[in-house]
Amino acid sequence: MHKQNSPVFALLLLILGTQSSAASKPESFTRADLAAASTLRERALADATAYSLVESLTTEVGPRAAGSPGDKAAVAWGLREMERLGFVNVRAAEAIVPHWERGEAEFAVLAPFPQTMPTLALGGSIGTGEEGIDADAVMVKDLAALTALPAGAVKDKIVFFTNRMERTRDGSGYGKAVTVRASGPAEAAALGAVGVVIRSISTSDARFPHTGTTRYTINAPRIPALAISNPDADALVRQFESGKPVRLRIKSTSRDLPQVRSANVIGEIPGTDRASEIVILGAHLDSWDAGVGALDDGAGVAIMMGVAKLIKELDARPRRTIRVVLFANEEFGTSGSLAYLAANEAEIERHVLGFEADFGAGPVWRLASRVEPAQLPVIDQIFRALAPLKLVRGDNAAKGGADLAGLSKRGMPIIEPGLDGTDYFDVHHTANDTLARVDPEALRQSVAAFAVSVWLGAQYPGSWERVAAPKTAQR
Amino acid sequence: MHKQNSPVFALLLLILGTQSSAASKPESFTRADLAAASTLRERALADATAYSLVESLTTEVGPRAAGSPGDKAAVAWGLREMERLGFVNVRAAEAIVPHWERGEAEFAVLAPFPQTMPTLALGGSIGTGEEGIDADAVMVKDLAALTALPAGAVKDKIVFFTNRMERTRDGSGYGKAVTVRASGPAEAAALGAVGVVIRSISTSDARFPHTGTTRYTINAPRIPALAISNPDADALVRQFESGKPVRLRIKSTSRDLPQVRSANVIGEIPGTDRASEIVILGAHLDSWDAGVGALDDGAGVAIMMGVAKLIKELDARPRRTIRVVLFANEEFGTSGSLAYLAANEAEIERHVLGFEADFGAGPVWRLASRVEPAQLPVIDQIFRALAPLKLVRGDNAAKGGADLAGLSKRGMPIIEPGLDGTDYFDVHHTANDTLARVDPEALRQSVAAFAVSVWLGAQYPGSWERVAAPKTAQR
């Protein structure tokens, strides 16, 4: 095509553009819906429901790793609490989950300076057997440093990864650092290593090792993999820096058991004139086993149930159906989310808007989204309704969480009230994930931010448009 | 005696009082000694010796509970480092220490809501055997509440003590709370209990149980005793508050082994014209086994060795002899301190002034003392020399630490640069007592405060007078 710079052509473009914009011009929320949003916000800031829920879940159920007795107890808890709060269509939808048992893990420096250090096996890692493994150790910063070693450098050795995660508000430090946990054992094994020890993917200087899944590959042996805390990783680095050979001993009695039937727990606040459209609120019911899963993800469960409860108590009923889904097994491969997708294959398009809370207990500090750009003015309207909560306006590149990733890939728009993750990775996946880490005021503020956003999302007078697939996040 | 209120008698008292005051009027420090104090202060603020020492002790030795292999390694470390720093008369002076092995401990709530929680056996507590103990539980706040229970209320039960320690800068909250750990098991046993679980004597909301010694009595059975962290104690209180019966399971494989020979490690900076007078600098070399003893009492060891090293490097030599004593076994009955007293019985009076550092890594926030009141102007002079460090002037009722308690009872005056203990009991006696908790700047400031005080104490032109015995402190 020839270059077209004529005034007539420019005018044509202008007219077409105006028409196109007019065609998709977002509609405004009704006064009544905005008033209800204010009511929700104020009620949420005074409502103890979410805190009571996370208190109850952590006290009465506690750890609930996929496949464990706590997992079953959590499903029963979720059904009971949804019924108690008056949700409808409350149900457990089957999901198959792995059942990995941690057993006991031990980590010791044998030389140059003998010490034992607290440790946690990485999720899914194989055990050493009772005899453990004694081996000389090689220290590397990260995967790139491992790859750069001379051939044979880690043969029959234990590899120690030292890279430290960066603290950020949006959790972006985690994604950069976690590749060592996810792929370090497989990559070290491919080079002949017999075990891996990582510096915890953590921002804390407290002596809590962090767990989390590792992923083996089909073309390398499975080797045991442990994590030690930041202060112990620092101490081990100092042992290496003595210049003397470092010899380690690792032991883990972890093992894989047959998969188990668990369930996503689902409940709804039914819609009215647009009831067939679903606004999905996702959080996950499983936790790691070392702590009681207060931040990860008891708080998310509590926020979403608290939001739905507050919307249910409004005089008005929502236009779209609000569906809370407490997913099984987020931590160990998101099999709950995959089961939900498979079971709802015929209704994917009905999921018109998604929210996920899986990043601690707040407060919410910004409002991001991933919607069709033409619908950004709707997000701006929601942002204005949130003004008393003093959020930052985020961009339209929200990555969302792991449990809604499947729906997102299929075009579902998301709105993301961003939970402040500055301290989240001090606690996440450790024994220290307890109710003491939940600030009741921050939790109430988070419920307020989500409640306003969810309500307006459910009331939007126009139609939520499908969006292009995002880059995936890893959490 | 009749009441004497006559003016003549009052005048007599006034004259006698004035004479007495004049007779003991404290002398002033020389300009040279004050100048050297300034030099010490400034050098200390830039000196890395103390941090290097605590780094080395925690990295190369690590945990060093009385009687353990780490205890032996610590003695060797102390001798080596004192020699390296150029101290003289470096020696190990034998002390017999207990050898209690922690083994493994487990704590589980069996009902109403089953959960396991991290736990540590109290120091010296007996084990349960491999079979453990299952029993119903009774919750009480403290010893007074236990005593107030009806007869038979804790018979065959596990007693759970819930009282929470108060956070204070001077550590006074510890003394109030620690009686439960020290005497709770013995008192519960006397009432027929079969086990004890305490809320850790701790100010932290992190999930670290705190250990520390308990004391059995001759007239009650020895029963197992465990500690759980504050967040877990809160969770257990909530289980009780459900109103349902609480049943617990405790297990501990701890055991007492034969006593072991350890040693106090001693080194000196020799005095000159008053060399026979000893200014003693005490800290303890042992630690609890869960952490690496960075704050308790690696920091104290480092401060005292750092002080002596800086004084040794002055152009001037001290008038009195500065003796650093790294005591064995402070944690388990202060047998190192007792051995020191016994071995130095003939020379008690030669210990003219004492300093002890056993309260973390600083900063120093006040200057207290226990000296003859007539000598308080000397402390005031020292306080003025510390002015750039911005300390608070404390009182003359300093209680001192555990290792110098014996010398204090025998009349030795003490000067106490007070280490800030606000956060000390977050970490003390836990796995989290690591180098990460040592702030290098606070440590340098502490060395500066101690160095000035020790130096001027060693140079005082007058004679240090003996003082009346203090109330004893428990730490």
Summary keywords:
5-stranded mixed sheet, 34% helix, alpha/beta, 475 residues, 13 helices, homodimer
Low-confidence stretches of chain A: 1-23
Give the mean pLDDT of chain A: 94
User: Which descriptor suits the 3D outline of chain A?
Assistant: elongated
Tally of DSSP helical segments of chain A: 13
Largest interface: A-B, 32 and 31 residues
Largest sheet of chain A: 8 strands, mixed
Helix content class of chain A:
25-40%
User: Assembly state here?
Assistant: homodimer
Query: Helix/strand-derived class of chain A?
Result: alpha/beta
| Termini Cα gap of chain A | 46 Å
Q: Give the strand line-up of the largest sheet of chain A.
A: 3-2-9-5-6-7-8-4
Radius of gyration of chain A, rounded? 24 Å
SSE sequence of chain A, one letter per element = HHHHEEEEEHEHHEEHEEEHEHEEHEHEH
According to DSSP, the number of beta strands of chain A is: 16
Describe the protein in words:
Two copies of one chain form a homodimer. By secondary structure, chain A is of the alpha/beta class. An eight-stranded mixed β-sheet of chain A has the order 3-2-9-5-6-7-8-4, with helices on both faces. Chain A has a five-stranded mixed β-sheet with strand order 1-10-12-11-13, with helices on both faces. In chain A, α5 links the parallel β5 and β6. In chain A, α2 runs antiparallel to α13, α3 crosses α9 and α9 crosses α13. Chain A is elongated. The N terminus of chain A is likely disordered.
